[in-house]
């Protein structure tokens, strides 16, 4: 058995019921009686259903842990209740304890409490499919309450009728987005794969409920019998409205993300099975789908370089025309087209927290295309085909020296995802090779060739002649500094042309750190030399640009803090075995053009291309997931104002994007949040449309506030009830389903029959005998067309009976 404690505190604990204080002495007051006589608990909207049935704020529920342990016999129920009653009386515990009986779905409870000494309170529930007509009104509920009471008393009733409207006219419904169901790759429907889908595919609001309420009516002030009732809803002092929603509505973005999640889970087996099931499959070539073009042959590369974006969509879900349009969308510079990505260009504050890609860039277009292609144009096979063509395009651009349309960065940005860094690395390789070729062409041009036949006659060595010789031999100078060489007075120091350090992506940095860590503590010198390649290159370039220089000259330019005011090296530079001293002695005067490249653009580009070609659809989806979720988050922000769901999504996506080993469950949780955001957006849009259709004498601000209140609260109180503008608006909605075509703008002052009637009757009377103590009693009745539920609270004096 499971024991659960519930407590719903008062909003104002110090505020007590004045009627209770007048009726009972201070020593007779108890918290249970105050709750039973408190009419604010008659029809609460947020509390537990037990609070509404029995009028309780504190209670304990004893429920079976499993269905097999259900209290389904009268004998077991009596034994359990008897034991609880004995324990509570011995402990003087005033807390009500309720036991769940029968099956959980029936919500049957029975319980007991001892609020005061010699007073016992019993709780009972009844659940019926049908009830006699006599008890389907206030008069019958009062008769049920008075049965068994020993003295006459006056009863007070709170009544609530609930009206429902669900027959929405077409004019009050939002035009729903058309779900893309074209699996054959409709080439003309370009908008379907250029945008992120958003919205519900069906009406999300099922019903509008109007609850009219009469609180604490004396039984002598109204008549409510099976044959007649003077309870007019338009005269009720209190109106509340609430919405009922469709269960699990289908939404576009959630559907697309669900399919993308399947792509994340796909493996090599799915591609093999698709190949084996093809009508022209061959057992000998079952692995062709995996190995085809992973490392393109020379002939394929040459053909691709000659034909650029001429694709061949053979045996693929994507047609040749569709592929061309997709590639032109992803690479807009091919067709000299400017894709409109203005909705993504503006950077949001939350994007700084995400490790994604720049807004509106190549990866954003690729993510949008992959999401829609996977959902509507062939699944993983279509994604694999599209990515294969993209890899060929990357290969073509490297071979032809054409940069990618990505944001130009000097090196891969570690604040972006790995796929973005790889594309930036490929761009760096292309630009580095172009610069290198330009330098070689300039050096080999006829106008700049060195004249080997020029000689100088000198009778004896002098400083001036030595300087002239140094000037002739100097190479790779960038600019002149204001300092002179340490050993050659009168000769100025020149900044050399140096190599840029090799840019690294995140995976390369991790690999480098792993290699250095594997060397251990015994290989400190080896580790230092591995990290000093850039230092050696700079020293060689410096010697070539400044013949006759010494280490002090290099330190003056490279690390001025390690040079004293007198021009001597610092203490750490003079230590025996200093790395700088050893590297300087090894360095030869070599300009950049004759040095070994620190950044081998050819090798790094081939690494990027091989990495891209080795990605299967699942791996590709994992690499681009953070970018896709970023785009979806921007779409959600566009359709939703500042919302708690946006904050949750931002946090979850930021955690996923910065974790390389994220799990599929994290993606599933984000998908569920997007579904909630999409449903909320659809509900808001739908209720706005419905309210504005019947808007009259109600300002736009009031409509907006009322719509937000309906969405954010279970019930919304309508101030002024039927006489207010919002009350008239609700009545117009109910009148919208009327078949009266001649009503025009007149409001029908009639509501349909209520779908539910609720009564709460309470009184104070002695029981079981006229000499017994006067104690409170309460009964709750819910009457609908399908069921009747009655919950009673009866107290009795156990001393004077």
TrEMBL record:
Lineage in the entry?
Answer: Eukaryota, Metazoa, Spiralia, Lophotrochozoa, Annelida
Record's protein name: Rab3 GTPase-activating protein catalytic subunit
Cytoplasm is among the record's keywords: yes
Q: Where in the cell is it found?
A: Cytoplasm; Endoplasmic reticulum; Golgi apparatus, cis-Golgi network
Q: Which residues form the Rab3GAP catalytic subunit conserved domain?
A: 473-611
Q: Which InterPro entries match?
A: Rab3GAP1, Rab3GAP1_C, Rab3GAP1_conserved
Species of provenance:
Dimorphilus gyrociliatus
**Cellular component terms (Gene Ontology):** endoplasmic reticulum; Golgi apparatus
Q: Which UniProt keywords apply?
A: Cytoplasm, Endoplasmic reticulum, Golgi apparatus, GTPase activation
- Residues annotated as domain Rab3GAP catalytic subunit C-terminal: 645-801
Q: Which GO terms describe its molecular function?
A: GTPase activator activity
- Family under the similarity heading: Belongs to the Rab3-GAP catalytic subunit family.
């Amino acid at each position: 058995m499971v024991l659960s404690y519930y407590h719903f505190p008062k909003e104002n604990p110090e505020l007590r019921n004045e009627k209770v204080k007048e009726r009972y002495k201070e020593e007779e007051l108890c918290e249970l009686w105050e709750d039973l006589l408190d009419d604010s608990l008659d029809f609460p909207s947020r509390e537990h259903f037990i609070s509404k049935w029995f009028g309780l704020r504190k209670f304990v529920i004893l429920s079976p842990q499993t269905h097999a342990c259900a209290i389904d016999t009268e004998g077991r129920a009596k034994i359990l209740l008897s034991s609880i009653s004995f324990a509570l009386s011995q402990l003087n515990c005033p807390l009500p304890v309720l036991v769940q009986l029968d099956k959980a779905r029936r919500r049957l409870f029975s319980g007991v409490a001892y609020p005061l000494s010699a007073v016992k309170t019993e709780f009972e529930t009844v659940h019926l499919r049908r009830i006699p007509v006599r008890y389907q009104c206030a008069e019958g509920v009062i008769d049920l309450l008075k049965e068994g009471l020993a003295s006459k008393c006056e009863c007070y009733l709170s009544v609530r009728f609930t009206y429902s409207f669900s027959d929405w006219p077409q004019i009050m419904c939002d035009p729903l987005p058309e779900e893309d169901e074209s699996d054959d790759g409709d080439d003309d429907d370009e908008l379907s794969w250029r945008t992120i889908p958003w919205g519900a595919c069906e009406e999300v609001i099922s019903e509008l409920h109007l609850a009219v309420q009469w609180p604490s009516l004396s039984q002598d002030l109204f008549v409510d019998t099976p044959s007649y009732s003077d309870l007019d809803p338009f005269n009720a002092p209190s109106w509340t409205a609430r919405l009922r929603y469709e269960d699990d509505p289908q939404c576009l973005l959630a559907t697309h993300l669900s399919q993308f999640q399947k792509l994340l889970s796909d493996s090599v087996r799915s591609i093999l099975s698709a190949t084996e099931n093809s009508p022209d499959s061959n057992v000998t070539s079952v692995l062709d789908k995996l190995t085809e073009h992973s490392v393109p042959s020379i002939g394929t590369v040459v053909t691709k370089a000659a034909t650029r974006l001429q694709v061949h969509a053979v045996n693929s879900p994507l047609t040749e025309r569709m592929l061309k349009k997709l590639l032109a969308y992803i690479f807009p510079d091919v067709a000299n087209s400017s894709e409109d990505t203005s909705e993504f260009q503006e950077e949001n504050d939350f994007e700084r927290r995400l490790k994604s890609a720049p807004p509106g860039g190549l990866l954003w277009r690729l993510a949008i295309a992959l999401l829609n292609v996977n959902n509507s144009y062939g699944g993983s096979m279509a994604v694999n085909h599209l990515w294969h063509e993209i890899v060929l395009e990357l290969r073509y651009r490297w071979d032809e020296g054409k940069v990618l349309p990505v944001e130009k960065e000097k090196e891969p940005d570690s604040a972006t995802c790995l796929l973005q860094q790889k594309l930036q690395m490929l761009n760096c390789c292309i630009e580095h090779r172009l610069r290198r070729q330009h330098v070689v062409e300039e050096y080999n041009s006829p106008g700049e060739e060195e004249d080997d036949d020029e000689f100088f006659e000198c009778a004896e060595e002098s400083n001036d002649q030595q300087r002239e010789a140094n000037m002739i031999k100097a190479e790779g100078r960038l600019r002149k500094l204001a300092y002179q060489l340490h050993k050659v007075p009168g000769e100025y120091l020149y900044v050399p042309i140096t190599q840029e350090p090799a840019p690294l992506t995140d995976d390369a940095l991790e690999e480098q750190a792993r290699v250095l860590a594997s060397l251990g503590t015994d290989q400190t010198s080896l580790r230092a030399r591995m990290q000093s390649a850039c230092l050696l290159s700079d020293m060689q370039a410096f010697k070539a640009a400044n013949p006759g220089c010494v280490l002090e000259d290099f330190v003056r330019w490279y690390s001025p803090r390690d040079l004293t005011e007198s021009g001597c090296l610092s203490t750490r530079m003079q230590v025996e075995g200093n790395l700088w001293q050893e590297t300087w002695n090894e360095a030869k005067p070599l300009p950049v053009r004759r040095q070994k490249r620190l950044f081998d653009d050819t090798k790094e580009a081939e690494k990027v291309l091989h990495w891209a070609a080795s990605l299967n659809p699942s791996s590709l989806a994992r690499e681009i997931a953070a970018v896709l979720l970023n785009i979806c988050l921007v779409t959600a922000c566009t359709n939703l104002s500042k919302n708690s769901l946006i904050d949750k999504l931002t946090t979850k996506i930021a955690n996923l994007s910065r974790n390389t080993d994220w799990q599929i469950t994290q993606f599933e949780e984000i998908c569920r949040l997007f579904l909630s955001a999409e449903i909320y957006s659809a509900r808001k849009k739908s209720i706005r449309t419905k309210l504005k259709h019947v808007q009259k004498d109600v300002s736009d601000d009031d409509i907006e506030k009322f719509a937000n209140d309906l969405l954010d609260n279970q019930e919304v109180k309508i101030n002024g009830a039927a006489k207010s503008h919002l009350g008239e608006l609700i009545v117009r909605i109910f009148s919208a389903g009327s078949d009266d075509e001649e009503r025009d703008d007149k409001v029908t002052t009639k509501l349909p029959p209520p779908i539910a009637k609720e009564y709460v009757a309470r009184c104070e009377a002695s029981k079981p005998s006229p000499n017994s103590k006067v104690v409170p009693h309460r009964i709750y009745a819910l009457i609908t067309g399908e069921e009747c539920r009655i919950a009673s609270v009866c107290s009795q004096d156990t001393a004077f009976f």
